[in-house]
Write a structure and sequence with these properties.
The chain has helices at about 5-15, 30-40, 55-60, 70-75, 90-100, 115-125, 140-150; strands spanning about 20-25, 45-50, 85, 105, 130. By secondary structure, the chain is an alpha/beta fold.
Length: about 160
Amino acid sequence: MDFSVKLRNDWEKRGLKIVLAGGVFDIIHPGHIHTLNAAKDLGDILVVVIATDKTAIKMKKRSPLHSQESRCELVSCLSMVDVVIIGNEDNIFETVKLVKPDVIALGYDQIHQEKFISDGCKQINLDVEIARLSSPIPELSSSDIQKKYGEDIHDL
């Protein structure tokens, strides 16, 4: 399902609670599944923001294995996800302003500080709940998977 302002307005009229979660999602693993299920449990509609390729490089200090379009397609196949969009490269709050979520769900390992997100939302006149999600398997990450398999991961 493609995201649009019309779609968001329909959700608001129906009183649906919108949850926004984001990340790189380059190598989907059980930690992602748990986090996205936990995010979905916070509301009715889960909108997932995929980091652009340039943002992924900044965050992970490496190029993603998959393009932003491929990562978007992969995440859109997950059953708990309602809508997937590619984020704004320059300003995360442009994406937040577009989606207007009721809740922003942050993964346990995401670098964003709750206060930074809260303050940024206030600047765009958006009253939003910030939820820091936990993980039952915090030792699992895409970066660790890539380190373990090295260049061989490209051949999997």
